[in-house]
Amino acid sequence: MNQEQLYSLLTDPVVAGFANGQPIEHFDIIQSKWLRLKDIDLDAYMESPSFYRVRPETKYRPLTHAEAAGLMASGILLTNRGTKKKASIDVVRVDGVSVGGHSVTYQSLMERYTLPDGSPCGVLVNE
After folding, report:
1. pLDDT of 23 over the 90 cut
2. Which pLDDT score, from 0 to 100, does residue 46 have?
3. How far apart, in Å, are the Cα atoms of 62 and each of 90, 121, 124?
4. 25 alpha carbon, distance to own chain's centre
5. In this model, does residue 124 exceed pLDDT 70?
6. What pLDDT shows up at residue 42?
7. Which of 20, 87, 108, 117 is least crowded, fewest Cβ atoms below 10 Å from its Cβ?
8. Is 53 exposed, middle or buried (0-12, 13-18, 19+ CB in 10 A)?
9. Are the CB atoms for 101 and 93 separated by under 8 Å?
């Protein structure tokens, strides 16, 4: 390996991501899905780099007024990330909601509260 090849390897996003602790995935052709790796086989990676990636970040957006109204109607209990207390949405307004008597914006609702499955109280954005 020459200096140019080494530099190319060290600046590669997958190798750099692995070195920085980011989750790396490999596309399994048989299962037809991305699987998380614990270690990277550099020889296999260099042979087929398109089968490897840094796992994409999961992104959420705040709820809309209508989505918050539907959540309120369902009576689902949300969990406050800080206090771990559970509460449901009491009131839906144009600029936010009231959860357990506390007013929060839709952005704060997503940042401070989780749904029963542990995901943020927002909508998953598919990119």
Report:
1. yes
2. 85
3. 17, 7, 9
4. 15
5. yes
6. 85
7. 117
8. middle
9. no
Query: What span, in angstroms and rounded, lies between the C-alpha atoms of 121 and 117?
Result: 10
Give 66-69's long-range contacts (Cβ < 8 A, gap of 24+): 67/123, 68/92, 68/97, 68/106, 68/109
For residues 91 and 65, the answer to whether their CB atoms sit within 8 Å is: no
Helices and strands per DSSP (H, E), number in the chain: 5, 11
pLDDT of residue 127: 58
* Both structure tokens of 27: 């596309």
H or E stretch covering 118: none
- Tell me: the pLDDT tens digits for 39-77? 988 888 888 999 999 998 889 999 999 999 999 999 999
